[in-house]
Write a structure and sequence with these properties.
This protein is of the alpha+beta class and about 525 residues long. It has 18 helices and 18 strands. A hairpin with a 2-residue loop joins strand 8 and strand 9. About 0% of the residues have low confidence.
């Protein structure tokens, strides 16, 4: 489907009364919207900025069980995540692919130690396991991860997890919710809550594009704003104790020579005890992540110098070719919405990685914490509370086996083989037809980026991309793949979008200037 995702149409429908109103367009909010709409509830979702603008577009791009939680003996968290990993692998084959991870070992005892742990990982996944882990000798390890540090290398252990493009997944969820009748709109800021007596009955909102204020009414309101959850909770109750402590994760993007194979490296021990990943992604290599407790949530967090040095230093221990600051094509930071019980601060590693659903006395339902892999389970848990709060007729959850927008089977002959077009799944054919419309849409947008003009025209026409940032940062991943190249491509992309959206040259110049300011934060100075 390529219709039914028009923002003007969505805005016009916000005068309806809804069963479920979701505030927040990241992983958790979009998941709730899909769950609610697919059950048949009248559903709306409002996003103040853009879908997956913050944390949900800045992850490690993994659909995973969390190997490191085995060492913490947190079997329930791992089991839940592995179950959801398997479901997402089947429900979004165009989005989620099988990725091999190799744990290089440099002492004899690491073989049985990690081998047993990863066999347990396989067992906990059960019938939803992607592929079984196995031991590798030295030669096999080098073949699997050619840039591994070979001095002292004895072998490795390979296991498998899922990989995806987080921002593209967000769009697939938004489109899925819309396919099931939900009203989904970006750049609609919630400025307050409506109450009938003591019960939350909707929101006050502002269309940021049109500059208009209005109200949206619903039987139940779900706060799914991630790192900003406490601010919405305070709209409801000014005395609400904080429950979110952001923890920053930073990733460096390098060219493919730092991971010339098709497999990832999992470094089990770093300076601070956190694992480090070296991951092939979109013909680049991601290296990360950090875990730095932050005092305040930030829509555009920036990497700290010590985080950059931490990643470079620890990566160099396991790579034959050591990365330097000059090798970094882009750097990005995101903040995890870690949950604590309120009133105290603590180290981020000790704060819950699982999710919490909290219902206030006035009926505001808040979903907090969690991670991309478990978004579906988080949504189901949230709706079990929302149905009661809103007095909604019971309807069963159907997302366990619900195909996401663009679904194609893993072995479907129509599945695109290249990583860009694969993300569009069954829409790839229509995307290619768009590319044939005009010469500039079939040409590469930049020699160092894998996109044509068509991907940007498609984003404006069919994916609610309203700004240059939307298109270069999230509908495509240009900004993350090569920040300098994205800057150079910005004027061409602005011209394509302006033609699609009916804007003039002044709009193009303004967009390029704003994007230049933003992109500077994704470039690493030497």
């Amino acid at each position: 489907m390529t219709q039914g995702f028009n923002r003007d149409e969505m805005i016009s429908r916000l005068s309806e009364e809804f069963d479920v109103l979701v505030v927040g367009g990241g992983a958790s909010g979009l998941g709730v919207a899909v769950d609610a709409a697919s059950r048949g509830y009248r559903t709306a979702l409002l996003e103040a900025h853009d879908f997956a603008k913050a944390t949900s577009s800045r992850s490690t791009k993994l659909v995973h069980g969390g190997v490191r939680y085995l060492e913490q003996l947190n079997f329930s968290l791992v089991t839940e995540a592995l179950r959801e990993r398997g479901r997402l692998y089947h429900n979004a084959p165009h989005m989620v692919t099988n990725l091999g991870f190799v744990v290089p070992r440099y002492t004899w005892w690491e073989g049985p130690f990690y081998g047993i742990g990863l066999k347990l990982y396989d067992a906990l996944a059960g019938k939803l396991n992607i592929e079984h882990s196995k031991q590798l000798n030295k030669k096999q390890t080098i073949e699997a991860i050619p840039n591994v540090q070979q001095k002292g290398l004895e072998g490795g252990i390979m296991y498998h997890d899922g990989q995806f493009d987080d921002a593209r997944m967000a769009i697939a969820l938004a489109r899925t919710a819309a396919d099931h009748g939900a009203v989904v709109a970006n750049r609609v800021e919630v400025t307050g809550l409506l109450k009938d007596g003591d019960h939350v009955a909707g929101v006050k909102a502002r269309d940021v594009i049109a500059g208009k204020d209005f109200e949206v009414r619903a039987k139940v309101v779900v706060n799914a704003t991630g790192i900003f959850s406490d601010s919405v909770r305070k709209m409801d109750d000014s005395d609400a104790m904080p429950m979110i402590e952001p923890a920053q994760g930073v990733h460096l993007v390098l060219d493919a020579s730092f991971g010339p194979g098709t497999n990832a490296i999992m470094v089990p021990h770093t300076d601070d005890g956190r694992v480090l990943f070296v991951i092939p992604w979109h013909d680049r290599v991601l290296v990360g992540t950090t875990d730095t407790a932050m005092k305040h949530p930030d829509l555009e967090p920036r990497a700290l110098d010590e985080e950059v040095e931490f990643i470079l230093r620890n990566a160099a221990r396991y790579l034959e070719k050591d990365p330097t600051r000059d090798d970094v094509l882009a750097i990005y930071a995101g903040q995890r919405p870690l949950v604590h019980k309120g009133g105290t601060e603590g180290k981020s590693k000790s704060i819950s990685r699982s999710h919490e659903v909290v219902v206030s006395e006035s009926g505001l339902v808040s979903i907090m914490g969690g991670k991309w892999t478990t978004y579906r389970q988080m949504a189901e848990d949230t709706m079990s509370h929302a149905i009661t709060v809103g007095g909604l007729d019971e309807a069963p959850c159907v997302t366990t086996d619900l195909h996401l927008h663009g679904w194609l089977g893993h072995k479907d002959p129509k599945m695109p083989s290249d990583h860009v077009r694969r993300q569009y799944g069954s829409d790839a054919e229509a995307l290619d037809a768009l590319a044939a419309e005009r010469p500039e849409l079939s040409e590469p947008i930049h020699e160092h980026l894998p996109y044509r003009g068509a991907e940007f025209a498609w984003a404006a026409r069919n994916e609610m991309a309203l700004t240059l940032e939307d298109a270069l940062a999230r509908r495509t991943r240009s900004l993350l793949l090569d920040a300098s190249a994205a800057l150079e491509a910005a004027p061409r992309v602005a011209a394509i979008m302006a033609k699609e959206l009916g804007h003039d040259e002044a709009w193009q110049a303004e967009q390029v200037a704003e994007f230049k300011d933003l992109a500077g934060g994704y470039c690493l100075s030497s």
